[in-house]
Design a protein that fits this description.
Strand order of the largest sheet: 1-2
Number of helices: 2
Largest sheet: 2 strands, antiparallel
Number of strands: 4
Distance between the termini: 44 Å
Order of helices and strands: HEEEEH
Structural class: alpha+beta
Strand content: 15-25%
Low-confidence stretches: none
Helix content: 10-25%
Mean pLDDT: 87
């Protein structure tokens, strides 16, 4: 596999390979790379009462602000 953060090639363990289908493409060579990816690609919800951190790929970007879900995007004044 190739690390999703630094692109280093590494072997995955046999127990991490799913029995059906392809393995998750977001594999990391180390915990350090996983944390670095999370920090670089995460945001804090910009709704005043929330403040939850989330990956950008799982959030909503509406009117120039990042929100952790669609309900918070709609609740923003």
């Amino acid at each position: 596999m190739s690390c999703y953060n630094c692109y280093k090639l590494f072997y995955i363990k046999a127990e991490e390979v799913p029995l059906r289908g392809k393995p998750d493409p977001r594999q990391f060579c180390s915990d350090h790379c996983k944390k670095a990816y999370g920090l670089a690609n995460s945001m804090k919800c910009q709704l005043a009462d929330c403040g939850k951190r989330f990956l950008k790929t799982e959030g909503e970007y509406v009117h120039g602000k990042w929100f952790c879900n669609d309900e918070h995007a709609e609740a923003d004044p």
